[in-house]
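ARCHIVE CARD
CATEGORY: sequence design from structure
SOURCE FIELD: tokenized fold
FIELD CONTENT:
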């Protein structure tokens, strides 16, 4: 097995965490490819073990069996887009804050790496969203968390016609609309009142951003649905984004079509921890502050 090692070089904890990983891999005589930018940050260009080498991000992704990504959820999202249709499994090591996608903390790496090298791990396929717009012909946007249409730089509300499989569903009036995967249910959608969805569910969430009416409620549809949204408000443009990173400004009337992509993102998951363990640890889910000591 060959591991690919990449990371967010802006994270202060990256050098120490990568050095720990390299020492574990050297002890295990494991092969790896390390991003040369990460290696340069370590200041130890001669530290590679036999059979291992440095390369660019593309090489690390293309020639590894498992990618180990150091950073926060934003790093995992960026790596997932780089992996694309290759389907290379990704293990996230959390150097950020919340870390829903990053599976392990640095202090848990020894056990996690031992399990990976021994084949004791699971792979979870996560739905990817695919979005297109007539305003950007030939361009396809992919998102692991969400596709968002919002009012851009305007302070005025926008009306968003929402169609499901060719049938008109509802017009949301508010600041925007979030179309989220199950993975993205705990991201922007959650902060706007959307439900928590277990990540392997075969559904897509539709959540309005600051709806102007109390009847503008979130909607869950099957992941086989094709969702078409049309903005006809008198504003000059809207902002259309995928995972908050790939974006475009579209002039109204603007149309965006979202559906399930043909490929998935494959995340390495620990067999000793469930999604509900993560919810309790990250969101203090189900805890009552009235019964907390202190």
């Amino acid at each position: 097995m060959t591991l690919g090692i990449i990371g967010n070089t802006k994270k202060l904890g990256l050098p120490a965490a990568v050095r720990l990983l390299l020492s574990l891999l050297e002890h295990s005589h494991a092969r790896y490819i390390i991003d040369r930018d990460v290696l340069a940050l370590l200041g130890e260009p001669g530290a590679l073990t036999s059979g291992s080498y440095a390369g660019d991000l593309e090489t690390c992704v293309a020639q590894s069996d498992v990618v180990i990504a150091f950073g926060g959820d934003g790093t995992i999202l960026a790596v997932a887009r780089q992996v694309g249709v290759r389907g290379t499994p990704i293990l996230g090591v959390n150097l950020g804050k919340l870390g829903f996608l990053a599976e392990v903390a640095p202090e848990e790496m020894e056990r996690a790496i031992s399990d990976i090298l021994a084949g004791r791990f699971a792979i979870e396929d996560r739905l990817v969203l695919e979005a297109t717009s007539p305003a950007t012909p030939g361009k396809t946007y992919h998102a692991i968390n969400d596709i968002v249409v919002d009012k851009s730089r305007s302070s005025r509300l926008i009306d968003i016609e929402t169609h499901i499989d060719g049938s008109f569903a509802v017009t949301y009036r508010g600041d925007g609309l979030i179309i989220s995967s199950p993975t993205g249910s705990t991201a922007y959608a959650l902060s706007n009142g959307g439900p928590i969805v277990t990540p392997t569910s075969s559904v897509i969430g539709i959540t309005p951003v600051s709806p102007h009416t109390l009847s503008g409620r979130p909607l869950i549809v099957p992941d086989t649905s094709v969702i078409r949204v049309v903005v006809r408000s008198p504003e000059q443009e809207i902002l259309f984004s995928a995972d908050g990173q790939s974006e475009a400004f579209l002039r109204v009337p603007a149309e965006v079509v979202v559906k399930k992509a043909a490929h998935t993102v494959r995340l390495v998951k620990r067999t000793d921890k469930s999604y509900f363990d993560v919810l309790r640890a990250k969101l203090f889910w189900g805890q009552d502050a009235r019964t907390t000591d202190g």
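CARD ANNOTATION: The longest helix spans residues 14-28. The chain has a mean pLDDT of 90.
SHELF: design records, drawer C
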